[in-house]
Design brief:
Spore Coat Polysaccharide Biosynthesis Protein SpsA, Chain A, 8-stranded mixed beta sheet, 11 helices
Amino acid sequence: MSQSVWQRISIIIPVYNEADTIEDFLKKLQEFRQYGHEVVLVDGHSQDKTQELARPYVDRLISSAKGRARQMDLGAKMATGQVFLFLHADTQLPDSADLLILNSLARGKYWGRFNIRLSGTNLLFRIIEKMMNWRSCLTGIATGDQAIYMSKMLYHDIGGFPQIELMEDIELCTRLIKWTKPDCLKQSVISSSRRWEKNGILHTVLFMWMMRLQYFFGVSAKQLQKKYYPEHG
């Protein structure tokens, strides 16, 4: 790696019951470990073999109470890198993602996100992707699926992830844009479209917009969590 000022990236991943896919997902991150970066997996007390299967492929395996914000914040507290990259377990990074991030920071940016590409082949996904990428760059509000990264210093300056049940990515970005706008990297992460395909593409679009609208008008994250995860009661 040729980088004038090399910085270690901590890839922080919240997981829960990902035994079916965790090995294939983590194998794709081993190249970054070879370059000296670390993989920090924060497991929300999975009921399957997620921890057992993941252990050989990570630098730190942390058990946490369930909840993405809580898990990612704990991972950040335990991470040793100078840069934090928050990655969902159904999202694949582009080639040379570490160089793209470090070059972004070297250009004077403090945080950023990748464009998103959904894994499904339906033409509607291509339209949704373009709208998501355009909207997030225009507003500075990224989704967790876009692999948000930032310097460790900035993360601590803004107080880290807000400890809320849902919409933690929106709140995090709201804090970040008070400091500076994101670097909108054009390279794409590939995010699973399984939820969209399972629940229906248009239904999911409308549902997510309704959730955001309700949150904007003051509905609590705890109330929205019950709608987003009805199976949890």
